[in-house]
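Standup notes
- DV: blocked on the single-chain target, sequence here:
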Amino acid sequence: MTGRKSKRKITSVLAAVLAGVLMLSAASCSFSSETGGSSDMTILPLRADISAYDGFVQVRGTWFYYDDGSFVESGMAEDRKGEVDGSGQDTWWTIRDSRVDDPYTGLGGNSSGWWYVDDGVVDTEYTGLITGTVNGVEGDWYVEGGQVQTDFTGLRSDETDGGLIYLSSGRVDPGYSGFAYDEEDEDWWYLEDGRAGNETGGLIEGTVNGTDGTWYVTAGLVNLGFSGIANDYDGPWFVINGLVQTGYTGPMTDNGVTYYVTAGKVGDETPAEEAAAAEGTDDETPAMVKKAQTYYSSTDYMLMTDTSIHMTGVFQGGIGNWELLYYWPCTVGAAATPTIHGEFAVQNKGQHFNSDENSDGEYTCWYWTRFIEDYMYHSVIYELDSDTEVQDGRLGYSLSHGCVRLATENAKWIYDNIPINTRVVVY
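- DV (later): unblocked, structure below
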């Protein structure tokens, strides 16, 4: 009890001394405005009444803070801003033992939140991690614009090392391991011990975008753009858009090789005779429909072109369940400039293009959809800059420079409806 009485006595004496100094000597002190703005220094009149005064006061070189005429003994000047000692810093200052604590650097709080303080003043330019105590909890705290982000839970960049950290109510959560969404870059990441590790990779179970499953992770990032075969420590797995297809059992074709998949696990190659049988058909169903069933796509659509019979099919559905929507005649590459064979994906689209200077003649093609390099689906060819005068409308031939020509309305349908990353199979 002696310590408390002594402190109260010292504070009371200090307040009395300050009050006396303020009332007796107009030249001995000055203060800054509590309302912000220019915070011009003002001289108190002789025998000034400070019983209701709020603000900063300097006495013999030391700055104090008054609240309703009383000293604030410690903390951050509650909801008050002002300029101290000509600093030009019109902001909150920390108070310790009734004095403005210029040397203090760390975390401090007031009714507006928790703040990073540098040499006694809130540093509103600082963004990054600060180690300290907030509301009695120690840890690494994320500060943005000087304020501790206690209302935020999610991913943020660590400005010190450039990595991603997981925050729980503003504090780095070292116990968190799992998937988290980066709102800024719109990516999903896998974290261990509260941080995204660039060395993390493989197939990892968890929830991404509301879907439970096993996800393909590369360098810490959930690879939602990957479709194909992903290898893990226990072998190869069938993946579509980053998710292992544990619900699928049946044949699948990847890079021209057909495999048999069991609950997502990729097995040995399907024997050639079985693959050939899978392409068999009756008189009414195109062989392309049977062939399509072993292929996968990153979207709900797939395009297939059989160059030997000059036909293009548009499918909707998914592996093992593709439905043929359209079956169109097309013109493919000439013998000297054949259409490339293989498995590809739609890359980009455009409304039209004109022939270049090195081509045979001048022409315009409409509604192009590129699937690799300069290979595209597009309309038959028109006279240069025309959308009405057809220069060569032949379909069912091998005479293009390598692109797949379609009737203009069909090329437009693909342009309008087929998403980027849709699988394209040309054989």
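- Follow-up: The longest strand covers residues 364-372.
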